[in-house]
Design brief:
The protein is an all-alpha fold and 431 residues long. Helix content is 69%, strand content 0%. It is globular, with a radius of gyration of 21 Å.
Length: 431
């Protein structure tokens, strides 16, 4: 009996230590109420697409179309952010900038700091030299990775995936004020949608001019000023759904569920079959991003939010997919450093994928349980879905959210040489 007491005490201590983790997992598997309304299928979709990104960072030839997920993540993130701004205008008559930036900080920065701290610790102990890693971490936390990658990609090679975080953070800084000025001038109406679409068209024209002038793919792929047309499309989507309440157009409401099968077939086909295995041509920067990624993404997000019971809902509302969607930001943050660490020990691609994905999910779950959940609780209390206008049903943050901060990037110094749009950050060429 005496010898068993230390064992019992150890069990009690371990149980107390893991209680937040168990509660977090149970919480992630249950439906939650979000301030703008919650669409479980949105979470499930980005959870499964996050898995596609992880696979692409190990061997992009197995999921060549995963590069289009970035466009969808940007759309979803901007959709969510603009929905938050519209909610502020509806409830308070103006945008509460302080509260907005406090929410974004709480959602994005603490998990990033945790990942960077672990990255620096492991580099110091197991993968010197330490000073280059410290420089990479400083670039990442300064949210300038996207432009740094344009001019010096080797400097941030281990955590180059943070370019998407930089792009979204720059969007968070600029868009609330820009949106407030647009609303003040146009109001919340179709002229506002037209103005946002005009900004998107101007960004596309700017990218086209750079392309015709001979700009290299890095300049076109990672920079905020050449990728923000996808973000503007998500903003226009949010305002459009604000102006088109559910039930206002019965024909549209009947049409949306019928798009489920075509959209599901499209995303499967474009992911595995019809996207070039060696990466997209420069046509991606001309029109491929918008036609193949942004517009199908808008249709998919709208269909999932404005209908129910379709094949897409049955796939994306699987509990496993929804759970991955809840912790997708953590998976995004952790997966590339883990994959690169495993690659530095010469692990073959398939075991690296299996072990790296498992470790990423574990790290993301621990981050959610012990860190993110507590910051998320500091947000303003959620309102029941029934009390919100139907048009504000939206996807939680990506960025990831982009968390769609998301949020998810492709970076690699190996695959980038053969596939410039993927930029997968691995040390050896994928098979």
């Amino acid at each position: 009996m005496f010898k068993s007491r230390p064992i019992h005490a150890l069990f009690r201590l371990s149980g107390a230590a893991t209680t937040p983790l168990r509660e977090a997992i149970r919480e992630a598997w249950k439906a939650q109420v979000y301030p703008l309304g919650y669409v479980p299928a949105h979470d499930g979709m980005r959870g499964l697409m996050t898995l596609g990104v992880v696979v692409a960072h190990v061997s992009h030839r197995h999921v060549p179309g995963a590069v289009l997920y970035i466009d969808l993540f940007f759309v979803a993130s901007a959709y969510y952010i603009t929905g938050l701004l519209l909610r502020d205008i509806d409830k308070h008559g103006h945008i509460r900038f302080r509260e907005f930036y406090a929410r974004r900080f709480a959602r994005i920065v603490p998990p990033l700091l945790l990942m960077l701290a672990a990255y620096l610790l492991f580099t110091w102990l197991l993968r010197p030299p330490f000073l280059p890693a410290l420089e990479r971490a400083a670039i990442a936390i300064s949210y300038i990775s996207n432009y740094w990658y344009v001019f010096d990609p080797k400097t941030i090679e281990d955590i180059g995936h943070t370019w998407t975080l930089s792009t979204e953070e720059q969007f968070y800084l600029l868009w609330p004020l820009t949106f407030a000025l647009l609303v003040k001038h146009f109001g919340v109406n179709w002229r506002l949608v037209g103005a946002i679409c005009a900004i998107a068209a101007a960004i596309w024209a700017w990218r086209l001019s750079l392309l015709l002038d001979g700009a290299e793919w890095r300049r076109l792929y990672t920079a905020f000023d050449t990728r923000a047309d996808a973000l503007m499309a998500g903003c226009a989507m949010a305002v459009t759904l604000r102006l088109v309440p559910l039930g206002a157009y019965p024909v549209l409401d009947r049409l949306l569920p019928k798009l489920a099968w075509p959209l599901l077939v499209y995303w499967v086909a474009i992911t595995f079959l019809f996207w070039p295995a060696d990466g997209p041509s420069m046509n991606y920067y001309y029109f491929g991003s918008m036609v193949c990624g942004v517009l199908p993404g808008i249709l998919t997000l709208t269909m999932l939010a404005r209908s129910h019971g379709t094949i897409c809902h049955r796939v994306f509302e699987r509990p496993e997919a929804v759970f991955l969607g809840r912790i997708f930001y953590g998976i995004y943050l952790w997966h590339l450093p883990i994959l690169n660490f495993l690659d530095s020990y010469g692990m073959p691609w398939f075991p690296r994928l299996v072990v790296g994905l498992a470790l990423s999910i574990v790290a993301a779950t621990l981050s959610y349980a012990y860190l993110e959940r507590h910051f998320l609780r500091r947000r303003s209390p959620p309102q029941p879905l029934a009390s919100q206008p139907p048009v504000t049903v939206t996807v939680p943050a990506f960025v990831p959210a982009p968390a769609f901060s998301t949020d998810l990037g492709f970076s690699s110094r190996t695959a980038a040489q053969s596939d410039p749009s993927l930029m997968i950050q691995a040390r050896r060429a994928s098979p």
